[in-house]
Amino acid sequence: MEEKGFIFDLDGVIVDTAKFHYLAWKELANQLGVNFTEEHNELLKGVSRGKSLEILLSLGDVTLTDFEKEKYMKEKNIRYLAYVAKMDESDILSGIKELLLFLKQNNIPFSLGSASKNARVILEGVNLLEIFTAIVDGNDVSKAKPNPEVFLIAAEKLKLKPENCIVIEDAAAGIEAAKRAKMVSVGIGEEEMLGAADFLLSSTSKLTIEYAKGLLN
Ligand code: BG6
Ligand code: MG
Predict the structure, then answer these.
(1) Is the minimum distance from the CB of 52 to ligand 1 under 6 angstroms?
(2) What pLDDT tens digit does each residue of the chain (217 aa) get?
(3) Ligand 1, atom nearest to 49 Cα
(4) What is the fold of 18-84?
(5) What is the rounded CA–CA span in Å between residue 73 and residue 78?
(6) Does the beta carbon of 169 lie inside 6 Å of ligand 1?
(7) By the 8 A CB rule, do 115 and 144 touch?
(8) How far apart are CA 50 and CA 143, in angstroms?
(9) Which CATH architecture best describes the domain 5-15+88-216?
(10) Is the shortest distance between the CB of 41 and ligand 1 below 6 Å?
């Protein structure tokens, strides 16, 4: 049998940072008078920072110059990083650390495949930077999810064929990207959002070592 491996999304799979993104975007929404709820925040999951801003602006029918957009994204990221700075190992989602250690100990290849430009800072904060030998993040790609670029680069880094890669994702855009890359996809979350995934788990606590072994066979 050919070798298989895993590609992990970061936000919502390894750590729960969606709440920090929400708080940081919410402040901008308030500044601009845009009604922005936690439900709206779902639309931002998995998509790039620039696309997130576009979605927020379209919710309030707000038009900005490119200069203003850059400025607001910078300010948003500074607020976001202030939350990130307080993260530690306790912010790793249930079962993930055990799974990564198991994969490492058994020489099963795995990579990060994230849209975030803050991926390394976050991994360092929760003490997982060392365990990842392959990282593909928002700094390495020119096309955001649902484009498959991020996962295809990860497969190359792992020296695996796309069809032998198993993507773990909590965002609809990420599941679509995995599909387009012809990879196996495991959705973490609700059927409503992630119905297109090959496998669906309600939370990372269900992504046990036994379950991962099953995916490899
Ligand atoms: C994704 C998040 O992982 O990263 C998105 O799900 C976020 O919500 C995107 O917009 C980009 O993140 P960052 O950290 O580069 O602003
Ligand atoms: Mg995610």
Answers:
(1) yes
(2) 899 999 999 999 999 999 999 999 999 999 999 999 999 998 999 999 999 999 999 999 999 999 999 999 999 999 999 999 999 999 999 999 999 999 999 999 999 999 999 999 999 999 999 999 999 999 999 999 999 999 999 999 999 999 999 999 999 999 999 999 999 999 999 999 999 999 999 999 999 999 999 999 9
(3) 10
(4) DNA polymerase; domain 1 (1.10.150)
(5) 9
(6) no
(7) yes
(8) 11
(9) 3-Layer(aba) Sandwich (3.40)
(10) no
